[in-house]
Amino acid sequence: MKEAARTIELFPTAPEAYLYKGIAHSQLHQYEQAIEELVTGRDLVVDNAPLTAQFWSSLGEAYNASKQFAKSDQSYEKALAILPNDPTALNNWAYYLSLRGDQLERAERMSKRSNELAPGQPSYQDTYAWVLFRMKRHADAREWIEKAIAGSPNADGELLEHYGDILFELGEQANALEKWKRAKERGGASELIDRKIAEGRRVE
Q1: What is the rounded distance in angstroms from the CA atom of residue 73 to the CA atom of residue 70?
Q2: Which of 17, 55, 111, 146 is the most exposed place for a label (fewest CB within 10 A)?
Q3: What pTM was estimated for this model as a whole?
């Protein structure tokens, strides 16, 4: 963030520096500052469609994190209008929609497409598994979460927690509990992981 700020001082009309600064703010959970930088940089872009799409995608991320969901959806719409086959934008928007339980059929199409465009990516496979889970297609969700696990030798807590949730809904409570415990050990699981372990059931 500091290096991007220095670059902006030297080249105040170069949009890329605002993109990097905005992303840095997002990663520091400073979402309002991120949005401000990203909007400024976006408006400086001239005749560069991929860069404009990146700004819109990054705004989608920041708006979602700050719970401005309508603006997040609008931003992803604009990003995909420019680059309809951007696997990262397709994956991220699909995942956010799945977390909200919103537009699940659309999320399924986008997530499926991201996996077609970039096969073998565990994070994309995890997203597809979670979209299918939210659609109550639990057997299909298991197939995809196991693909993601197979491609992740050091699977993080979020991935393992998803696996546990899917297994629980398939009636494998003991297996689910074991996955939840591993998820807590790995780190990165949701704030609900302690309750899932303590109560031996999936909670939302």
Answers
A1: 5
A2: 146
A3: 0.92
